[in-house]
Amino acid sequence: MKNIPKIRRFIPDIHLKSPLTNAMPGFFADSATITHPELQHGHRHLNVELNFMKSGTLTYMMGGRLQMLREGETAVLWANYPHRIQSASNRAEVLWAIVPIQKFLGWRFPRQFHQRLLGGELLVDSVPMPEQDHALFKQWCQDQKNPHPGHEEIMALEFHARLRRLECRLRHGNQRSKRMKNAANVTHFLSAGAVKMASYVARHFHERISLGNIAGAAGLHPNYAARLFRSNFGVSTGRFLAEYRIAHAQTLLQTTDAKVLDIALASGFQSSSRFYATFQSLAGKPPKTFRRN
Fold it and tell me: Is the N or the C terminus of the chain less surrounded, counting Cβ atoms within 10 Å?
């Protein structure tokens, strides 16, 4: 049997407001030391995750791609996309922080940034700042352990600012490359309507909702809403909703002893057959096998 990394905490139980309903309460930060080189099974949760590699190197498997994070580097990923540690150097240490997708969407980053995250990329800052990031993540972990009034708001503002810096560097780096190829230098930001629809899904994914409901949240016609959503996020509303529900179900399977049927209903599925089919399609295995592993 292969060794599995001993990680102090990788999927925090703070993701759940209650045993089965709704997702994360807010910002969270922690650290992990990898003591063995391989993690057999991936995981996913409903957050945007920022990683800082304090020491060593870490290789993620995301969407069939191997993506490395080196010592001193900072990267962001959308944790709803299944990811796992494929390899790590001896006693690699990573610090990480998460923020709910609802809050992230409200920050209105450029469209290409969202699409790359939703596409399963690990986006690494092109200009590492290890001393500053180590101090920032260390402060977040201390605030998490010893909370004080307003600490989550402060942490979220700092998270937002750090993510803005990372995105700006990536965008300007891409634009320099484009100018060398005489390509247009245009940045498209997410439309307000797309943000409203994605936020609606994040708030109501556990309910019975349709394209009409999602479009109505933005005051749009369903046909136009479907095109707008895909052009902004690169996926359909149906796919986004299904992935959100399955990510929530996977979190419940990993963190509770609830029955599979109860988890299916709490994740927004109206029948066990639909849940099993969707879970198999997106996770590559049945729910019970996922839980055992």
Answer: N
> Which contiguous run of DSSP H or E holds residue 34?
strand 28-34
In terms of DSSP bridges, do strands 28-34 and 83-88 run parallel, antiparallel, or are they unpaired?
unpaired
Both 168 and 232 in one domain: the answer is no
- In terms of residue numbers, what domain contains 45? 13-180
Residue 24 CA to its chain's centroid (Å)? 12
250 Cβ contact list (under 8 Å, min separation 6): 43, 44, 45, 283, 290
What tens digit of pLDDT does each residue of 58-115 get? Answer: 888 876 678 889 999 999 998 877 677 888 888 899 998 988 887 888 888 888 888 7
The reply to whether 42 and 97 lie within a common domain is yes
Is pTM, for the whole model, over 0.90?
no
pLDDT at 251: 80
Is 206 within a domain? yes
Sites in the chain below the pLDDT cut of 70:
1-26, 35-44, 63-64, 82, 174-190
Task: State how far the Cα of 188 lies from the Cα of 35, in Å rounded to an integer.
Answer: 42
CB 117 within 8 A of CB 123: yes
Could you give the CA distance from residue 285 to residue 280 in angstroms, rounded to a whole number?
A: 5
**What is the rounded distance in angstroms from the CA atom of residue 92 to the CA atom of residue 58?**
7
Residues 201, 174, single domain; the answer is no
What tokens were used for 88? Answer: 């790590």
Sheet containing strand 83-88, strands side by side: 65-69, 58-62, 83-88
- The string of DSSP codes covering 165-196 is HHHHHHHHHHHHHHHHTT------BPPHHHHH
240 and 172 share a domain?
Answer: no
